Every structure is written in C-alpha cells, then in structure tokens.
Amino acid sequence: MKTDWAESFRQRINAFADATGNLLVDAFHYLALFAIGAATVWSAVVAFLAMAGKGHASIDDILLLFIYLELGAMVGIYFKTNHMPVRFLIYVAMTALTRMLISDVQAHHRPDLGVIYITAAILLLAVATLVVRYASSKYPAGPAGERGGR
Known about the structure:
With about 150 residues, the chain is mainly alpha-helical. It has helices at about 1-55, 60-80, 85-110, 115-140, 145. α3 runs antiparallel to α4 (about 115-140). The protein is elongated, with a radius of gyration of 23 Å.
C-alpha cells in the first residue's frame, strides 16, 4: 500500500517535470526563432537602406539580400515544421561563396587558384544538395513520434 502511494507520487512528479521542461524548451525555441527572424529582417533592412543611400546596388549587395531571403525562409520553415531545412543552409553557403567569388574577381581582375577553389567548393555544395534531395525523397523521415523526437 505504501509503495503504491510512492509510485503514484513519483509518476505525478515526473509528469509535472516533463510538462514544465517541455514548456520551457518550447518557450526558448519560439523566443530564439523570433529573435533570429527579427535580426535577419533588421540586417536586411539596414543593408537595403545602405544600398539606397549609395544610390545603386552592386551584385554583392543583391547576393547579400538573397542570403537574407534564404535565412528568413529557413527560419519560417523551421518555425512551421520544427525541422531544420539543411538544403537552405547549403543554399546560403553557395550564395555566400558566389558573392565571395564575384568580389574576388572584381577586386583582382585576374583569375588565380583561389577562383578554382571557390568554384570547386560551390560544385561540392551543389552535389551535396543533390545528395540531400535524393536521400530525402528516397528515405523520407516519418512523423516526429516515430523518431523519438517531439
């Protein structure tokens, strides 16, 4: 009789701790997503206003806006699905490398081995995107409950 009471109390404590922990994790999750989203929008607006202040937009500036767009889309997808869209991270990296490549060629006006390295990195990321897309279509993830996640 005494152990039944103790076991019932332990289960109630565990349920309370689980519910409280889930609440705190979800609160942090949403707070962090809103902060990242707000920082992305703020940075994009500042970059756009700087372009407007210059009176023109270079290809670097436009690619920077695409990076902000991809980051914003990634935050939105993560907010809706609770899944990190890895492909968007790869797209951001590809855009950043393209931006670096264009800046390097504009600054030096001569091709060198760095151009080959950056181009190879972009190609590697494109192949990684292809692999991720193939793997996600061939081996789709099940519902969150089946993976042991939320």
